[in-house]
Amino acid sequence: MFKVIGQTLFSSGLQHPAFTTPEETNVNKATDYEIRTYAPTKWVSTTLTGTSLDEAMATGFRRLFKYIQGNNVNKVQVEMTAPVTGHVDPGAGPTCESHFTVSFFIPVKHQANPPEPSDPDVFVEHRKEFTVYVRTYGGFSNENLKKEELLKLVESLKRDGVEFVDKPYYVAGYDSPFKLLNRRNEVWILKQTVEA
User: What gap in Å lies between CA 152 and CA 137, rounded to an integer?
Assistant: First the structure.
């Protein structure tokens, strides 16, 4: 248990999901975002509905933290990983409810057979391979900052004539609230896929 809490507090050396970046030499490389393709992986997730992204992320984090502390069918403690992602499907207007899915990446050791959640609000999510445009920023993030960074990413993609999916989108955080320096936050926008 102390290992899990320590990993959460200091968030260094945590396992991350594997991704690749394209080796496209003919494309102008943007300096304000990167392109990543994530391999198929399993995540432990919980879904919430509401109007506040920050509240949804906090509630979701608590549910998932209980899971990794052993609130699962096998009573297994699971290592903390990064990032914590929030999949945001925005409501139709500013006061409409949005749908949020908060997720922890399941460590490689448990990918083949993740412990089954005990909480009915927690589930194992099988993510297929996906490609995202990623904007990274530092400091302590909040709902307004996430929106600002998302808009900057959208502007960059439009500037570069890139096809993208405007919603849903992801937010990602890599650090514990107790880490003060060199914090890492990201917003992810899905690449538009061409239907075969």
Answer: 11
Q: Is 134 helix (H, G, I), strand (E, B) or coil?
A: strand
Q: Which of 181, 58, 63 is nearest to 118 (CA)?
A: 63
Torsion of CA 166, 170, 172, 177, to 10 degrees: 100
Tell me the per-residue pLDDT of 6-17, one tens digit each, with 9 for 90 and over: 333 445 579 999
SS3 171: strand
Which residues, 6+ apart, have CB-to-CB distance to 196 below 8 Å?
A: none
Whether residue 57 contacts residue 142, with contact meaning beta carbons closer than 8 Å, is answered with: no
Which domains occur in the chain, in start order? 2-191 (3.20.80.10)
The angle at the Cα of 122, spanning 167 to 11, to the nearest 5 degrees, equals: 80
Q: What would the pLDDT profile of 94-118 be if each residue is shown by its tens digit?
A: 778 999 999 999 999 999 999 999 9
Residue 194 DSSP symbol: P
| Separation of alpha carbons 28 and 46, rounded Å | 38
| Spatial CB neighbours of 105, under 8 Å, sequence gap ≥ 6 | 15, 16, 17, 41, 43, 81, 82, 83, 85
How many residues are listed for the chain in this entry? 196
